[in-house]
Amino acid sequence: MLKEQIVECLKKNEVIHEEFKVGVSFGHFLVSREDLQAVPFDGEQGIESLLEYLTRNGWEGLYEEEALIGAQKENATVLLGAGGQVNLHIAKTASLKTIDKTYLEFLQSLGSELEARNQLLLSIGYQPVSKAEELETVPMVKAQLLTDGLKNDAAALQTLKGAAKTVVVLDYAHSDDLEKKYRVLYMLAPVFAALLDNVPVLDGEAYDKFTAGIALDEAMQTPLAKVENVISGHSFKYAQYANFAANAPAVAVEENQKITATDKTNEELYDNTDMTADQVVGVLDMMMPEIKLTDKGMELHFVDALPYPLNMAYVALIKGLIYNIDNLNALYEFVINLSKELQDNLRQNIIAEGMEAKFNEGTVREVAKDLYFMATPQLPEEEQHYTQPLDAIIFKNIVPKDVTKRQLSKMQGK
Predict the structure, then answer these.
(1) For an engineered disulfide with 162, which of 132, 145, 249, 250 has Cβ 3.0 to 4.6 Å away?
(2) d(CA 22, CA 12)
(3) Cα–chain center distance at 208
(4) What is the C-alpha separation between 246 and 119, in angstroms, rounded?
């Protein structure tokens, strides 16, 4: 029953190509301007009080019991991550301009308040000073249960509590379309991660390698993150993702409106149960792969949180590549002939070499350049300028994390 219900949930996401839209989630950390330490949830100047500020200025509060854990206004929703990440979710839209406008209005709405608090909202891939183990888990039951369930998996905890992401949410037309997009993005995830590498500090120590997010994903042990046979498997459609979710730890179970811990897998817990729609969504939400399927669509979690306008450049790049049929088909023909061994080697190589890592017969930089030239012309003319910030990275060898590192040093007076 469980697998069938997951498949049915994924089928409900189907959208005809002409109506494809893009959603995003832009991750941030709220830190003290003085020392860049993470701001706690509680307190007069805490994260919750910043959410309260939003509710006094036209936003509707989102609560879990008495704790304020988010806020929403029109097409935007602020929702906290397990480690206090301030994630701005912008609902799916066909227009990049709408995403752009919504994000800038959000930043502007907080500008004077952050100044008064002597705080910063940083768009960076990992906490600049604070360690994951030092961060309190926000008062959300599922976040706390997940934190406890991952207590012996250091890399998973670092990802859950210490990392922030730029997440793109995509539509798909049917199971075959999902498979094509999933396989293309799964193979190219390291390329996007290297192109937009934005983690100069990992758990309080300078991170001198590349793509810390990929390194953490490789080190994670939890089955919540490990999707198998995407490249080498016979197929990867709704049923294969449902198998992954069913075999993963359930972590939390909701009964009689109360959420408690469990050591069962989702299949053991739910296979003979007629689940509610909310329970199915809850199962999908607890998964932690780089490409995650939920009731909202296909979520891409492999790129670090990025400052504006680089975050918009990434969204535009994905849209121009994946929503153009010719580009998607060309990329599928490219990746389908590559092996899982090549992909595994690529992930290790970019950790050591970044954009200069070898990829097939060239380098990651050369592949990124091809992707850039494929995507930009296929965007509507009024959206093509959004990819321009990628020029400096691809052609002038600028690494986002190096720019961020200099900025952090300046903030700290070094």
Answers:
(1) 132
(2) 17
(3) 22
(4) 42
* Residue 390 and residue 195 in contact, taking contact as beta carbons nearer than 8 Å: yes
Q: What is the DSSP letter of 373?
A: H
Quick check: 154 and 160 in contact, CB under 8 A? no
Query: How many angstroms separate the CA atoms of 6 and 108, rounded?
Result: 39
Give the H/E segment covering residue 170.
Answer: strand 166-170
User: How far is the CA of 73 from the CAs of 89, 90, 91, 106, 382, in angstroms?
Assistant: 11, 10, 11, 10, 26
Sequence letter at residue 350: I
Is residue 22 predicted with pLDDT exceeding 70? yes
Complete DSSP assignment for 171-215: --SSHHHHHHHHHHHHHHHHHHHHHT---SEETTEE--SS-HHHH
**d(Cα 346, Cα 362) in Å, to the nearest integer?**
12
Q: How many CB atoms lie within 10 A of CB 172?
A: 23
List the beta strands (DSSP E) in 22-159. Answer: 22-26, 29-32, 60-64, 67-73, 76-80, 86-93, 119-122
Residues 69-102 as b/e (b if ≥16 CB within 10 A, e otherwise) read bbbbbeebbbbbbbbbbbbbbbbbeeebebbbeb
Q: Which of 288, 70, 290 is nearest to 191 (CA)?
A: 290
Of residues 176, 172, 180, the one with CA closest to residue 296: 172
Task: Please name the amino acid found at residue 171.
Answer: D
The pairing of beta strand 29-32 with beta strand 291-294: unpaired
The DSSP letter of residue 303 is S
Q: Against a cut of 0.85, is the pTM above it?
A: yes
> Residues 369-409: pLDDT tens digits?
999 999 999 999 999 999 999 999 999 999 999 999 999 99
269 Cβ contact partners less than 8 Å away, ≥ 6 residues apart: 250, 253, 262
Q: Is 361 exposed, middle or buried (0-12, 13-18, 19+ CB in 10 A)?
A: exposed
CA dihedral 336, 341, 347, 349 (to 10 degrees): -120
Report yes or no: 38 and 135 within 8 Å, Cβ to Cβ: yes
* DSSP-derived 3-state class of residue 357: coil
Asked if 152 contacts 220 with a C-beta cutoff of 8 angstroms, the reply is: no
Reported as a single tens digit per residue, the pLDDT across 285-298 is 999 999 999 999 99
Contact present, 47 and 84 (Cβ < 8 Å): yes
